[in-house]
Design brief:
The chain is 80% helix and 0% strand. It has 16 helices and no strands. α4 crosses α14, α7 packs antiparallel against α8 (151-161) and α10 runs antiparallel to α16 (317-348). The N and C termini lie far apart (56 Å).
């Protein structure tokens, strides 16, 4: 068995070297290491910056300075990180979740998350595409990121709809900007609108509306450990909704295509299927804690590398092309997330 694994690993490495993946992956790994060090020394921790956030920021800095000179040798490895490594990272993300976590939330919280995900995406699409006349892919990606799980949802959706790098980056910029703003605003909202005895329940509001998991943790930590725990579990339910969302989106993509040639057929997003399979495995099998921790660490590495690849291929000129429309859409959706989550909480839970 070990012999077969060794042979397979050797062939994989040889294949990657033949396709010139190594130079690009070395660059990606360097960015990953810098992002990890910054997080290790808690730089930006109060802003909820994770290695993923640093990776895309560092990638953008390099991508707009020296990367154009390196691109001829590194572009294949960078594309590999944005594509295959991202899909593998999404699959392994399923090991962070169990269906028991969902059941433990109660019907009220589950209803709030369902409402927030569906209404936020539809509102984003309606305003962005119908009224602001933005590019459809950019609007879809922004809706996915704001309604589900931030950059991971944007990247997974981009893989499905074959979005351009500029479209993907614009959506992630909205997630990072307004998710960071939430870290400062939500604790103030808590002191303004909530009684201290309801501190834990405020986690439902946080988990059902804040963009990124890291940002959810940052908000919850400022209030209480109980708030953070409930916020993270509530957020994880939104993460689980990524797979059903992708299949629903796939249905509408197929429906809107009146003529689909054999070359352009939309394939099943198998990474979404495997994402659900991993959740099921983690729910049924009692996986040892050390194994789960190892899988999570590998997953974090893969997702961070994918973000680095995205940053490297992002040019600041893309934001100029987006204009004020992307920012306006982000503001509108951000206000909706706050107001809708509070109203839903008071109607369903309080």
């Amino acid at each position: 068995m070990s012999c077969n694994v060794s042979k397979y690993s050797s062939k994989l490495i040889q294949s990657m070297m033949m396709k010139n993946y190594v130079p690009g992956l070395v660059l990606i790994i360097c960015i990953y290491l810098i992002a990890t060090l910054l997080t290790h020394y808690q730089i930006g921790s109060q802003l909820g910056f994770s290695p993923l956030t640093f990776a895309i920021l560092i990638g953008m800095l390099v991508g707009n300075t020296i990367y154009p000179k390196l691109a001829p040798r590194t572009d294949k490895g960078v594309a590999f990180a944005k594509g295959q490594l991202l899909r593998l990272g999404i699959i392994l993300y399923g090991f962070r979740l169990t269906f028991a976590q969902v059941a433990g939330l109660g019907l009220g919280t589950i209803f709030i998350d369902l409402f927030m995900v569906s209404s936020t995406f539809l509102l984003t699409y309606w305003i962005g595409y119908k009224y602001l006349n933005m590019e459809k892919n950019t609007v879809i990606l922004t809706g996915a990121g704001c309604s589900i799980c931030g950059a991971a949802a944007v990247m997974a959706t981009a893989s499905l709809i074959k979005a351009k790098t500029t479209e993907t980056t614009q959506a992630i910029a909205v997630v990072v900007l307004f998710g960071t703003l939430a870290i400062f605003l939500y604790p103030w909202l808590y002191t303004l609108l909530f009684d201290p005895k309801d501190a834990v329940n405020f986690g439902i509001v946080v988990g059902s509306s804040v963009h990124e998991v890291a940002q959810v943790v940052a908000v919850g930590k400022q209030i209480s450990d109980g708030t953070m725990d409930l916020a993270v579990v509530t957020k994880m339910l939104r993460v689980i909704m990524l797979a059903p969302f992708l299949f629903i989106l796939l249905y509408f993509i197929n429906r809107d295509q009146t003529e689909i040639s054999a070359k352009n057929k939309v394939t099943i997003p198998w990474f979404a299927v495997l994402f659900l399979v991993m959740i099921a495995i983690n729910s049924i099998i009692n996986i040892p804690g050390q194994a789960t921790q190892l899988i999570t660490q590998v997953d974090n590495i893969l997702l961070t590398m994918a973000m680095a690849g995205l940053g490297l291929t992002t040019h600041f000129s893309a934001f100029k092309k987006a204009g004020p429309k992307a920012l306006l859409l982000g503001v509108i959706v951000f206000i909706w997330l706050i107001v809708a989550s509070l109203v839903a909480y008071y109607l369903v839970i309080a």
